[in-house]
Specification:
The protein is of the alpha+beta class and 482 residues long. It has 2 domains: 224 residues, Glutamine Phosphoribosylpyrophosphate, subunit 1, domain 1 (4-Layer Sandwich); 135 residues, Rossmann fold (3-Layer(aba) Sandwich). 40% of the residues lie in helices and 18% in strands. Strands 2-3-1-9-8-10 form a 6-stranded antiparallel sheet. The chain has a 6-stranded antiparallel sheet with strand order 4-5-6-7-11-12, with helices on one face. A hairpin with a 5-residue loop joins strand 4 and strand 5. The longest helix has 18 residues.
Length: 482
């Protein structure tokens, strides 16, 4: 990964933000340890931190300019199908200064403007500045894989790959209490909101296109343009058979993994032994000799240790497999370092394991593939199956719907198979007794509204009861509107 940041001044007062671009860029050093660069001109500044993956030479350093010097780009991400477009452009007479995907993307923008995004298969956050017209183009990938935080007031417009970088510009850190209430239920804050009321996450599959000389009357962050949207037609019947769609999915998976194996640095993959990572690793191992895979295990928590499954897969597909087996002391030792990487409240316990896995894996490879996102795409979580079952008419649903008082009395935890099943049955039974919208939201939450209210009113000392009630009610209204 790399990191980008930028500051655009709307007036003389806003130019003070431009002077802080180096501090903001330095804050992204962990994202890009291999190089740094800054562009400044009048009322705009752009910064880039580089992790070298494709064309590791200095010719591919950023900010990157076209041959004329008119256009400048900062880019975080990967453009998987760049090689084919590069070949086409070369055939048309285009000359390139390096072999990076960034330069191909810049040339596509020069030719097609915002429509260049239609050519890109990849994930990214980027900014391209036209020095002649004073126009800046900022975009984020279709699924929001690469982060981009934005801030705007009457004096400046700011963006960065991390919230910590935005804070270097001296923005006001005013807590968004609706987001706090949302976090207490979900254990994360969904886009576009953030923990700070004046900072937003840029919408996925969107871009901003504006002139940096428009001044303080402009409101740019509210003018995001959507360039991609998945069509929703759940009732449509496919003209293809199940076997045909199965074969198409297999082909798409093969192509997707192959594209991600293009790198000028060592690469590998995380292998948990689950369906998602096992499929990815088995495909990758066909195209990379002595492919490296990595797993993490738990010495003191055998119930959560799945390395046996990963070992079976690694042996089957013949990868060079490494297991990092951790004790509880190891987890605690890394906890505070991991927290330094998190920009806003985030309570998914897997973050600690992924942090350690990534840190150890980095000692052997620069890039690691993973199966993140597959559970959402293929409805792989228990809550997805629960929602499907809840919509069916069944005797089990009737029994469980009336069994909540009994299930309340039984022990519930994730510590063993029996108590975990009781916990799941209790959550399912509770969901059957509420409407569909609230039911799924409850299954995606770690606590209900009453528990969140209690934490706000009794455990957050900075909030009094009336204040907490105000914001919990505000969040409910927003959620219902969504």
């Amino acid at each position: 990964m790399c990191g980008i940041t930028g500051a655009i001044a709307k007036n003389e007062k806003g130019k003070s933000a431009i002077e802080k671009i180096k501090s903001a860029n330095d804050c992204l050093a962990k994202r890009g340890p291999d190089g740094e660069g800054i562009f400044r001109e009048n009322n705009i500044a752009l910064g880039h931190r580089r992790l070298s993956i494709i064309d590791t030479s200095n010719n591919a350093a950023q900010p990157m300019y076209d041959a004329s010097g008119r256009y400048v780009i900062v880019f975080n991400g990967e453009f998987f199908n760049y090689a084919g477009h590069r070949k086409t452009l070369v055939a048309q007479g285009m000359k390139f200064n390096n072999h990076s995907d960034t330069e191909v993307l810049l040339q596509l923008y020069i030719l097609h403007g915002a429509k260049c995004l239609d050519y890109v298969n990849g994930f990214f956050a980027l900014a391209i500045y036209d020095t002649a017209k004073g126009n800046i183009f900022i975009a984020r990938d279709r699924f929001g894989v690469k982060p981009l935080w934005i801030y705007e007031d009457d004096n400046c417009f700011l963006f960065a790959s991390e919230l910590k970088a935005l804070q270097q510009f001296g923005i006001e850190k005013k807590i968004d209490h609706t987001s706090l209430y949302q976090y207490l239920q979900l254990n994360y804050i969904p886009a576009p909101n953030s923990i700070f009321s004046d900072v937003k996450k840029m919408d996925k599959a969107s871009y901003l296109n504006f002139n940096v000389n428009e001044g303080e009357k402009s409101q740019w962050k509210n003018n995001q343009i959507k360039y991609y949207q998945i069509e929703s037609n759940v009732n449509a019947k496919s003209e293809y058979s199940y076997d045909e769609k199965k074969n198409e999915l297999k082909q798409l998976l093969e192509e997707a993994v192959q594209r991600r194996l293009v790198a000028d640095v060592p690469l590998g993959a995380f292998l948990s032994g689950g369906i998602d990572s096992s499929i990815i690793c088995s495909i990758a191992s066909k195209y990379v000799d002595n492919f490296h895979t990595f797993s993490i295990g738990y010495k003191d928590e055998k119930y959560f240790d799945e390395t046996a499954y990963a070992n079976i897969v690694a042996k089957k597909i013949k990868t060079n497999h490494t297991v990092f087996s951790l004790s509880n002391d190891d987890l605690f030792h890394h906890l505070f370092d991991m927290l330094d990487y998190i920009d806003e409240p985030f309570a998914d316990s897997s973050a600690l394991a992924v942090y350690i896995l990534s840190k150890e894996t980095r000692k052997q490879v620069t890039v690691a593939l993973s199966g993140d996102g597959a559970d959402e795409m293929f409805a792989g979580y228990n809550k997805h199956e629960a929602e499907w079952r809840a919509r069916q008419s069944s005797f089990t649903n009737v029994v469980l719907k009336n069994a909540s008082p009994l299930l309340n009395l039984l022990p519930k935890s994730r510590n063993n198979v029996l108590t975990n099943k009781i916990r799941q049955a209790h959550r399912y039974a509770h969901g059957l007794n509420v409407n569909a919208g609230n039911r799924y939201y409850r299954w995606a939450s770690y606590c209900d509204e009453a528990d969140a209210d209690e934490m706000l009113m009794q455990k957050c000392q900075v909030l009094n009861t009336a204040f907490a009630k105000k914001y919990s009610a505000s969040f409910r209204k927003k959620r219902i509107a969504q």
